[in-house]
Amino acid sequence: MSRSRGLTRRVALCMLGATLGGCATAQTVRAATAVAIAPGVYAVHGSGGVADEHNLGRIGNAGFIVGPNGVVAIDTGTSYAHGQALLAAIARVTELPVRVALVSHTRPEFLFGGTAFRERGIPVRMHRRTAGLMASRCETCLKTLRLSVGEEPLRGTAMYGADEVFDATHELSAIGRPVRVLYFGHSSGPGDIAVLDAASGVLFAGGLLDAGRIPDIQDSDLPGWNKALRELRGLGVRTVVPGHGARSSPQLIDTVERYLAQLEARVRAMVVAGDSLLGAADAAELPEFGAWDQYDSIHRRNVSIAFVRFERELLFK
């Protein structure tokens, strides 16, 4: 890069960062890149891993769908700055207005960018149970995020309430293109949704599907999750944008289902055998998934959560 081009880029970054406190905060408005998945359908991929000062907490995927009358954004990013970056990525693709932002599930990397959308008058929409879970615990989530990412990248980030809530599957018509918002009941989380672009068959799977990353069962209802995965198979999905990880084929549904089935079978066997929770995570290795992102952390926690659930079931039979 030439010196003049480098200076131009730094000046542009400083100007973009001015609302966040000047050039010293330029890193917090790191650009977001939209990747075309299908005509009018775009994904903005996260880094994976855990939220830290290097990735600015941008570990989850987001996306948007462009119709003749506007844009639907799917997930809002980790922070105010990340929300701004997502809006800038949309603006580089189209001049059409963003009509609504959907939040797919209650994880910091998908919801705290909502402040940037709301600042521009864009309503943030989520399932009623997601909004309730967010209100009950995400003040703590935000404090934890500040510790892991740092104060500066989260400048301007704040708790907020949903502008719009819903209770069931429905179709959005605001952009002149059929977008289905899918709710299958309590599954990977109490209010977790997926978003299907009917024209292209692209599914934004939110918390229902992760690619190459251990699914998190903390908020889940496992029977409900398996039911949701079965229903996804009947939707004619052609491409999956998971909550975390790379764009995938519909075979990702089978892969996630297989992990959940192996986890359940292994842990139930331990509970029936009278094994102790102490050491359960070490005993419940699943080698097929050992190379997945967060195997050493989320998988171990999943084992402990599942053990306690299944032990309680056995106790109260």
Task: Characterize the overall form.
Answer: globular
Strand order of the largest sheet: 1-2-3-4-5-6-7
Spans of at least 5 consecutive residues with low confidence: 1-28
The count of domains is 1
At CATH level 2, the architecture is 4-Layer Sandwich
Order of helices and strands: HEEEEHEHHEHEEEEEHEHHH
What is the subunit organization of this protein?
A: single chain
Strand content: 15-25%
Radius of gyration equals 20 Å
Biggest sheet record: 7 strands, mixed
What is the count of β-strands? Answer: 12
From the 3D structure, determine the CATH topology.
Metallo-beta-lactamase, Chain A
What's the CATH superfamily, by name? Ribonuclease Z/Hydroxyacylglutathione hydrolase-like
Q: What is the helix content?
A: 25-40%
Write down the CATH class.
Alpha Beta
Quickly give the structural class. Answer: alpha/beta
- Helical segment count: 9
Ends distance: 68 Å
